[in-house]
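Obj.: predict assembly geometry.
Materials: sequence records (below).
Method: joint structure prediction, all chains together.
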Amino acid sequence: MGHRICLIVMMLMSVGVCAQDQLLKNATLVSGAKGQGVIRDVHIVAGRIAAIGEDLKVDRGTDVLDLAGALVTPGFIDSATTIGLAEVSGLGISQDAEVSDVNLAAGFQVALALNDASLLIPVASNDGITRGVIVPQPGDSNFAGQSALVRFQREGTFAVTGALAQHVYLRERDRRYGGGSRASVLASVLHALEESARFDQRREDYDRRKVRAFDLPAADLIALSAVRQGKVPLVAHVDRAADIEQLIQAMAAYPKIRLVLAGAAEAWKVADKLAERDIPVLINVMDNLPGSFDRLGARLDQAALLDAAGIRFAFMSESPFTEFRSLSQAAGVAVAYGLPWDKALAAITRWPAEIWGLEGLGAIAVGSIADLVVWSGDPLEVVSTPTAVMIDGAWISLSTRQGLLAERYRDLLKLK
Amino acid sequence: MRKITVIALVVLALLIQSGVNADYPSTYVAADHDPFVIDQVMIDRGLGQGAFRGWVKVENGLIAAVEREDVPRPKGIRQINAEDQWLTPGIIDVHSHLGDYPSPSYRAHSDGNEATSPVTAEVWAEHSVWPQDPQFPLALAGGVTTLQILPGSANLFGGRSVVLKNVWARTVQGMKFPGAPYGLKMACGENPKRVYGSKSRSPSTRMGNFAGYRKAWIDAQEYQKKWRAYEKSLSDYEVWEAASDGQDYKTRPSPPKRDLKMETLVGVLDGEILVHNHCYRADEMAQIIDLSREFGYQVTAFHHAVEAYKIGDLLAANKTCSAMWADWWQFKLESFDGIKENVAMVEAAGACAIVHSDSATGIQRLNQEAAKALAAGQRLGLAMSPSTALTWITRNAAQALGVLSRTGTIEVGKMADLVLWSAQPLSVYARADSVFIDGVLQWDRKTGVGPVTDFELGQREEIF
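Observations (raw structure tokens):
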């Protein structure tokens, strides 16, 4: 359809936003542990990578861009953020990340609350992040609801997947939602799963109003049913080693559940159990404070330790609600603390794609979705920056309101 | 022993010179160490003048020599070959709450905000600091040798700050930077008006904030007058007493009752206590500068200063520093205009720029935060070097704390507060390999030298 629309949009935005066929010449692609590169041409057709090779030839209608050896990585994937749920996180009134005082918990979908015009979206893509998992926060229940997968561009579709995973919060401060003790919290989580199993068995009776009400609303039970059947991962935000062990034991009754740990400050202490069951971990690399008695084992080299134990992991910023605002910086810090460079890159590209089940993302390969970032230098260095970002085969605008402010005052004060 | 005496004399001289209140005095005395030379190292002195390969001699806790590599080394003292490393001044964080908001984070020892009245200039942050906070060694591993602990920002006047050396000690007095001036924490904007507005008390608006500052300064002026009048009458009395032949009688004047709140404010009016003013918005900072002119004091530094880039000229003219984050924004409405170029734009305007943390995680990598700020400025077309960026966490920070004559740069005669980095210090991959405070090795990654706080003992000692 869109050649005419494409042209109009390009005139308005002064940047191509349409998935035109593209040939990127002389892109340095990462291969090997130290980020050594090989120079290749990348041909993109209809939003996917059609060919990778040397001296590729293309039709006349294809846009050709010579990158002159610039490094190109897959777009980064932030495995937990709240962009689109709050313009100003400290203003309660602009915050849509949690629900309370309603009969809804696991059934809550953040996707329905997202602001696809958020000013924060291009701030993420300016850091080379093309996709993010938007996570719900606990309101007054340990089950917080369903996360969404988004792409960080303000044109076109923002939320790609509305029900990516279910999130349950089991940290020290979350005990209050489930009766006050970790024991009652775990019991209430198991009870909810059992209810969802009964609900599935008696679904027809329920629909015909022949069965008494369940303890949980239907929306929650339907959402938990998807968890129980392994259709979506169950992400447990949990820190203490003992709690992780209890959770693993409790989940043994539900072999289909795809358990993922998030935060998990003390995961390294139970690494053998995680490795045995292939349970992946979402790590906030820089969050190394022993901020509670749950987190006495928090440490900066968690990624290196989990890697040595053969555990899959992905990095998350948990921004903008916290102080950790840069995903690539987190990956760089993980390298400084012992993780091989290629694995740090994998933890924000290939591995989150695997953990979240995102077909075609996180890699530069024939058939992959063309989410690509062109870098000014080593992408894990804090001084590097994307010079161009492509999502689904289209270059996106990197213009931000912040950039406009900087230019306005640079010129007003004649700064050089 | 001789060194202790020297330090004690220096401290005493400083106290007399600056008139700093000598209550709750520092008991910090650096341990003795053998003199040594750090050789073949890339040195950035923190002066913004670039780096060179050379050597540094440390003796009696002080920097004894800084030379380029072609100058012969002194013989007969220990040489540390640091060919692959970089040497910088110890990192200084001008805005920290370590010890007054410690980890683990429980109300039981979260002692940073005396949020019971908008004017609590009488409280001192040092009385809240828990020296066993495990966050101190984490900051040390990031190269931080000196830090200012501030009260929080709930109040218009939050109280006195304290400057610490990042050394393990049993008491906060054992960490206090000898002779450093006190600071006064003030706060603009959303926080005071939110805290007190929610209690239906003044201030509940920004204009209420300003009325509150002005009333307090007027009270301080009155208090200052009362004490000056007393001092005058006392001196008149002493003149009379010395000349008196015992024939007539006069009463010795008695001093006014001490008011701790007013003592701190008068300390500012007398130029002995430095003002550290939490303030986000440019328009409010300009108003605060007018406030300082109305009452005749100097704002040493705006903290957070998210919009400092809008008024770099005004800040330069007023000689006020701005202590900023590299990239924090959006977490509250007054931070909505935060931009990554802020620090570099303040520098380019000729004003004093500082990168601060206000965070127990951020303090562990101020070098990276400075690097991010530098890169953003360079992308905007501002000409500045990595060496300039280093001044944001060393020299300029020392200046804002009033300790630049003692630390903050690598110059002969200054405290040997030094960091040996594994790589160029603005790289994300650089780690502090060794950290010296007053010439004493406090942290060494390879040999495992480093403090273990009492809290960590037996439950976290293996973790750095």
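Conclusions so far: The mean pLDDT of chain A is 92.
To do: check interface contacts against the pulldown list.
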